[in-house]
Amino acid sequence: MPDRSPAPRDKAGRTRFRVLVTDPVAEEGLEILRRTAGFEVDVRLKLAGPELKKALAASDALVVRSETKVTADVMPDGGRLKVVGRAGVGVDNVDVPAATRRGILVMNAPQGNTIAAAEHALALLMALMRNIPAAHASLKSGEWKRSKFVGHELYGKVLGVVGLGRIGGEVAKRARAFGMSVLGSDPLITVERARDLGVELIDLKALLKRADLISLHAPKTTETRHLIGAAELKLMKPGVRIVNCARGGLIDEAALADAIQRGQVAGAALDVFETEPLPATSPLLKLDQVVVTPHLGASTAEAQVNVSVVIAEQIRDYLVSKIVRNAVNAPATSPEAMGVVGPYIALAERMGRFLVQLTSGVPKRIIVEYRGEIAGRKFAGVTAAAVQGVLSVALQDRVNVVNALPLAKERGIAVNEGTNTEPGEFSSLVRITIATATETRYMDGTVIGKDEPHVVGVDGLHLDILPEGVMITFQNDDRPGIVGKVGTILGTHHINIAGLHVCRPTPGQRAFSIFNVDNPVSDQVARELSRLAELANLRVVTV
Ligand code: NAD
Ligand code: MLT
Q1: Active-site residue, 247 included
Q2: How far apart are CA 454 and CA 446, in angstroms?
């Protein structure tokens, strides 16, 4: 697993983050980054190949639209790159699994251009139905031909929307305003969402057979490549019209050109293509029934400002505060949920790091249990943080919230989650259990006040400590004088005690003690402490 090196610091000790921008994005977002202390923005458009790789290794973040191809071979194995921000929706120009393996977060700005793309799809649909581009060209060339350009109405037609997500949903609403009836096909949409949109949800085959017009709004993935191929085109009603304002590659362009030539398909309006820019030799360009635009779906002034500002803010917040929003390869936490769950993310990471240092052997299983209010929340990010904490002791900077769960899986460590909504002693409690071949240990933690992490139990013993800095833990006989002996040794070595907690099941039974100290504890001091006959299992833990 490659190392992600930290950003350098300036003379005053402040971190300097470099953000590389390789596609044109609105200035408004870049200005946000330039105005943030410690950030520099390096705009180098059209960077590719080895040059891009070199620049990425020296940058903490990359901002792209769809032109830059962020493939595995340009992603540095080491270097500083921590986050790729896509100013837009589709991340098919980014090798997301390769980024995940390298611990690089990939985020997008999914809402910023929804309306722009939906309106463009409708504009294409109307241009197609009313022959607007051809009529326009004819008049500009000096002709006045009215009968040649008789069109068709949207009113009363059946529109099939393939992909009823953000953009497909907006297209459906607008189509209903035109008096169309709308069919939808989407494997991940509930009947309730379809009903709210006024859409009849059916499977793709049925949609292809019934629709007069078809508009595609699915993402491009390995599963959706050529979603509309020769076989699907054959199922469609003769005279169907097709709009693709989603992604090139959803339609098999050669099969589409053939279906138009045969008259099966009356026309198509395309904003996106299998190869972009669309080669001048494309058969689609020769067909009068095809309307084309050069990937303009998101190209409105409003949308470009939206996505640029959103991606800039997300990159800033991730690099400065580790806040993850709109990540496509890390557990998603909404901004509202982040306010509640955020402090538990910090707590779980510390607890994981703490507990693994108390445990002997290699972790085989990590269990993260949620009790009380937090059990009713979306806590995937908390689990990832707990696993990150456990793995960080061995892997240090190479593990982060992006790759913690895949790394655990790769190493054969099972990760389980559990919930219990019953109210307990604390309003919310997180319990982390680590099982190795030889022992199973667990730790309880909670957040007190707004964001103070507290460990409130270890292996069933109640305590209350702040899991921070250097700590010395040990088991000891429950009798007078032991804390004094430990304090004397620490004092001799100028190690200041910041806090201490001794707990035991019942008086006289073996106790568990934790000292928070202000200074590092050398191996020699640890050996000296271990020689005290009353102590067992001494550990020096850094959280
Ligand atoms: P979204 O994630 O909100 O919606 C996509 C929907 O497609 C999801 O509901 C998903 O379940 C569905 N889907 C996945 N596989 C499917 C399949 N096999 N059949 C039917 N539905 C399937 O995304 P969005 O923001 O609505 O964007 C939709 C598409 O538009 C994406 O491809 C995006 O890249 C593209 N886009 C293009 C432009 C442009 O400039 N032309 C602008 C913005 C977005
Ligand atoms: C997107 O997916 O957001 C669009 O394709 C727009 C763009 O390329 O910026």
Answers
A1: yes
A2: 5
Nearest atom of ligand 1 to the alpha carbon of 167: 26
Residue nearest to atom 6 of ligand 2 (CA): 298
d(CA 30, CA 307): 11
**Nearest Cα to 515, choosing from 492, 538, 481?**
538
89 lines ligand 1 (CB under 6 A): yes
pLDDT above 70 (res 523): yes
Residue 173 token pair? 């609403």
Give the pLDDT band of residue 335 (cuts 50, 70, 90): low
Q: Is 431 a catalytic residue?
A: no
Please give, one letter per residue, the 3-state secondary structure of 267-307.
EEEECCCCCCCCCCCCHHHHCCCEEECCCCCCCCHHHHHHH
Confidence of residue 63 (pLDDT cuts 50, 70, 90): very high
**Which atom in ligand 2 lies closest to the alpha carbon of residue 23?**
9
- In 3D space, the residue among 235, 114, 110 whose CA is nearest the CA of residue 172 turns out to be 114
Q: How far is the CA of 109 from the centre of ligand 2 (A)?
A: 10
pTM: 0.76
Q: Which atom of ligand 1 is nearest to the CA of 110?
A: 25
List, for residues 312-332, the tens digit of each pLDDT value: 999 999 999 878 888 888 776
pLDDT tier for residue 97 given thresholds of 50, 70 and 90? confident
Mapping DSSP to helix (H, G, I), strand (E, B) and coil, where does residue 527 land? helix
